[in-house]
Amino acid sequence: MDISDVRGYALSSPIDPHQDRLFFGGTRRLLKRDVVLIVVETRDGEQGYATAGASSSAMREYFEGESQGTFADIVEGSVADAIEGETVEQPAEIHDLIDSVDLPERIQTEAASALDVALFDLRGKEVGAPIYELLGEEYDTTPTVEIPLYASAGMYMQPDGYVEQAERIEDLGFMGYKYRPGIGPDGDRETVERLVESTDEMEIMLDVHTWWKLGESYGRDTVRALVEHAADHGAYWVEEPVEPSDRAGYVELAETGAPLAGGESEASSAGLVELARTGALDYLQGDVRHHNGYTGCLTAIEYCTNREIAFVPHNFGTWLGLIANAHLVAGAPEVRLLEYPVFERDPVLDGTPDPGMYPFDLAFDILDGQPAVENGQLTVPDGPGLGIDVDLGVIEDYPFIEGPWTEFHYDDR
Ligand SMILES: [Mg+2]
């Protein structure tokens, strides 16, 4: 593959009017969602695609001041300079080239992740095989193209709201319902109890990245009690119950016996493995868009193989990211579940009442066509590379909007 051109487009999907969500001790305002579309072109005119971001975590972007706009500039600047004109045989070779660019660790990983995915797309197109087949060959697995999905939704609502949403999600056939608690310890307890009561076979997961955003307002003892409460009620997992870097906190909570998940906030695939090594997690959530692409995630998956920890990709964003992670699930050993974020007006879900979290039209419009989602299962496309067409019209239709996508406003206390 002779790389001739690397482009990055920062795009924004407005949430208009903005939405305010009440959490314990404050209000979270949702303004837009950002995506960086990466397009890599070879000398023979083939294009490979990926999505990326300055960060996997809204909180990090907000607090560390990185923006998707500056990330796109970096990709088109020093990253493009390092790889345009280069010839690579295998996608993994891109990592050494990007390592040679002097960038902050997180930005370097994000760039390497996007380029790895785009090059796998190109490599698949070159040899006429879907990415999952390339992975299957390398890891000697038989790809599974029918992938069960769990729905990711539910953001700071009253218990009634979560229950109504979960019932819709169960009707749609999803394996699980993951939601974001954080409305206060009493409300969070009531939510778990009511969800378990009102759903039948479907699993319940809690994504509590909010709790560590609450500063000291819950406190460690309360967090521990809530984790135990969720586990006692059969929660499938409790995700990011403590700040991502708090390894000791994970280990302490694991002693309760509660199933824990985490990993999305790690700055690299090495960080994923390090987190897994604590032995505290039951589920490791790497993402091809944030953890050094397929190459990096496969390192973490290899670590998980034959251990008491399952790799379940984090996946939050567009359908392009969904398909990218789906190829990993289909082709990697022992990975059998994928996150499906549910946004408003999702064209592949029957939307009455709409189970979506908030509008994110770009998530759907970025693809020309739709993923094959039916009854809570995704069939991974079998065309060459990612097997999908990107609608480059989104570059015109979703201009970048400066500023953070979300704001946390804390009540005075
Ligand atoms: Mg999460």
From TrEMBL:
The keyword rRNA-binding does not apply. Gene3D superfamilies: Enolase-like C-terminal domain, Enolase-like, N-terminal domain. Keywords: Lyase. GO terms for molecular function: lyase activity. Residues 159-259 form the Mandelate racemase/muconate lactonizing enzyme C-terminal domain. InterPro entries: DgoD-like (IPR034593), Enolase-like_C_sf (IPR036849), Enolase-like_N (IPR029017), Enolase_C-like (IPR029065), Mandel_Rmase/mucon_lact_enz_CS (IPR018110), Mandelate_racemase_C (IPR013342), Mandelate_racemase_N_dom (IPR013341). Pfam families: MR_MLE_C, MR_MLE_N. It comes from the Archaea. This is Mandelate racemase/muconate lactonizing enzyme family protein. It comes from Halocatena marina.
